[in-house]
Amino acid sequence: MKRELLLKWIDKALERDLHEKIYIPAETKPDAQQTVRDFKKELVLLYDLEPEKAGTVVVTSTFKDRRYWVILERTMGNPLVGFVKKKDGELERVEIEIDSEKDRRLLLMKEDGLTLEEVEEIEGPLSEVEKEIF
């Protein structure tokens, strides 16, 4: 799928309400898998510019009603932010610091479900320490 179309679909997903899904048809399983990889590459690039937005879109694929689909789902948000519930019931915001841009991208790719092979296709060969993430 062309980059321009990928970006338009990502914009559409960002306009959706929380947990709404957009289903995009795919011809074959390899086509669906490649489209998922293409979307994830664009989301990694978008994350560098707008992490709050890119962190709220999850891309997967499925086989439903005898057809392959790529699914864009609007989710809750940034995987680097969480909350701790204190003994008194109050929530405290907690953020994870990532040492480098590459480490941050690798963490996001792992959360998106990419395999080590897919990550190395995008990022190039990884060090042994980076491979331990997967």
Describe the model.
By secondary structure, this protein is of the alpha+beta class. Helix content is 46%, strand content 24%. It has 6 helices and 5 strands, in the order αβααββββααα. Strand 2 and strand 3 form a beta hairpin. The longest helix has 21 residues. The relative contact order is 0.15. The model has no long low-confidence stretch (mean pLDDT 86).
Uncertain residue ranges? none
Portion in helices:
40-55%
C-alpha end-to-end distance: 27 Å
Count of DSSP H/I helices: 6
Strand arrangement in the largest pleated sheet: 1-3-2
The overall pLDDT, averaged over residues, is 86
Radius of gyration, CA atoms, in whole angstroms: 16 Å
Structural class: alpha+beta
State the order of secondary-structure elements, H for helix, E for strand. Answer: HEHHEEEEHHH
Strand content: 15-25%
Shape: globular
Write down how many β-strands occur, each being a DSSP E stretch of 2 or more residues: 5
Largest sheet: 3 strands, antiparallel
Total count of domains:
1
